[in-house]
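User: Please fill in residues for this 202-position structure.
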């Protein structure tokens, strides 16, 4: 069984989402014999954002020489995702949505003919056989009924985009209010780490 572990926080060891995603992976490693783990840090090895040249190459145009390395990196990212049985994703909220590094990764895995296709009934996801667990961290509180709920574009986006490629039952572990104050941060992190420990085995 293969697990793909993705982190996207720019905060290194100070990141809440990194601590929680690591705890999730540790839980699954201990519970699953012979689990093969691939790790990708999107801040230490960032992907380029898509350009017109990327789209032209995807449509069959001969890519510029300068683009070849990045196209190979994008293909490697897609191959990692396709090969994974489990995906563990660390996703902090930056300015009400996902980090741009994570968006660049998503742009490389949401690919027609690979993770979704269009048919007579519209779009059909092709990646529904994966277990996807997301460690979310948010500085404030964005739950339903809160004043800031309308500004929540992290969890809502991730639910939609993974649902689009076929993953309907995302497992989310959230640490909320980590910038409200030290006590809130400590409790949010402790609760999220406990939730990671309680995850069922793969």
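Assistant: Residues filled in for all 202 positions:
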């Amino acid at each position: 069984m293969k697990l793909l572990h993705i982190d996207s926080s720019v905060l290194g060891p100070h990141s809440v989402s990194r601590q929680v995603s690591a705890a999730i992976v540790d839980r699954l490693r201990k519970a699953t014999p012979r689990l093969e783990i691939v790790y990708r840090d999107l801040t230490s090895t960032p992907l380029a954002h898509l350009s017109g040249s990327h789209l032209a190459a995807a449509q069959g145009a001969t890519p510029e020489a300068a683009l070849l390395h990045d196209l190979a990196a994008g293909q490697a990212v897609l191959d990692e995702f396709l090969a994974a049985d489990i995906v563990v994703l660390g996703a902090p909220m930056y300015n009400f949505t996902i980090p741009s590094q994570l968006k660049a990764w998503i742009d490389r895995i949401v690919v027609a003919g690979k993770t979704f296709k269009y048919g007579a009934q519209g779009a059909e996801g092709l990646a529904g056989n994966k277990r996807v667990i997301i460690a979310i961290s948010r500085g404030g509180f964005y739950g339903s009924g809160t004043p800031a709920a309308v500004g929540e574009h992290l969890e809502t986006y991730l639910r939609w985009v993974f649902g689009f490629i076929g993953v309907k039952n995302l497992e989310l572990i959230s640490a909320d209010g980590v910038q409200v104050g030290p006590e809130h941060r400590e409790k949010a992190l402790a609760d999220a780490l406990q939730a990671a420990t309680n995850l069922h085995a793969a």
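For context: Strands lie at 2-7, 36-41, 86-92, 116-119, 122-125, 131-138, 171-176.
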